[in-house]
Design goal:
Helix content: over 70%
Radius of gyration: 17 Å
Order of helices and strands: HHHHHHEEH
Structural class: mainly alpha
Largest sheet: 2 strands, antiparallel
CATH class: Mainly Alpha
CATH topology: Bromodomain-like
CATH superfamily: DsbB-like
């Protein structure tokens, strides 16, 4: 816990931002290497990781007071909540395919429409060509959606630590 006390909030936000963008880069490399077909929910999670990374890096660059630090951390935690719920929904689709409605191209919701628009703007990074219930890639028995669930959870906890608990950790006992 001593190392956490020495970590500045700016460095914490910087590490979170670079980690999120590194995760996107790793996912993209795996996608290309394994020739995976990302689905609309996969792409939406990618967008949330990119947004999380951008806001974390802004939090590292802009002046931080106690209120600013809390606001940045809570904003980042909110993004991770959205990502966690999206990954949980996709995990449910993969575990029990008939239980929830499949992402489809016939009756598109707001996420699919947004991802479709992004795919037209930047197809290399945002083109969705797969089905959300498909488990094309697994590592240690977990799909990409399962891993994303854990990553969003970790990023959310780290953001909450940076926002809410930081001052508690720095106070002497």
């Amino acid at each position: 816990m001593r190392w956490l006390e020495r970590l500045s909030p700016r460095l914490g936000f910087l590490l979170l931002g670079l980690s999120a963008w590194g995760l996107v880069a790793a996912g993209f490399v795996i996608q290309e290497w394994e020739r995976l077909n990302p689905c609309p929910l996969c792409i939406f999670q990618r967008v949330l990781y990119l947004l999380f990374g951008a806001l974390a890096l802004l939090g590292a660059l802009l002046p931080l007071g106690p209120r600013g630090q809390k606001a940045w951390g809570l904003g980042l935690a909110g993004i991770t909540l959205g990502g966690f719920l999206t990954a949980l929904y996709q995990t449910t689709m993969q575990a029990v395919p008939g239980l929830v409605a499949e992402c489809s191209y016939t009756d598109q919701g707001p996420i699919e429409l947004f991802v479709d628009w992004l795919g037209m703007q930047y197809p290399t990074l945002f083109m969705a060509t797969g089905l959300c219930s498909s488990r094309e890639w697994e590592f240690l028995g977990l799909s990409m959606a399962n891993w994303s669930l854990f990553c969003f959870l970790g990023f959310g906890l780290a953001a909450l630590i940076l926002s809410r608990c930081w001052s508690l950790l720095r106070q002497p006992a």
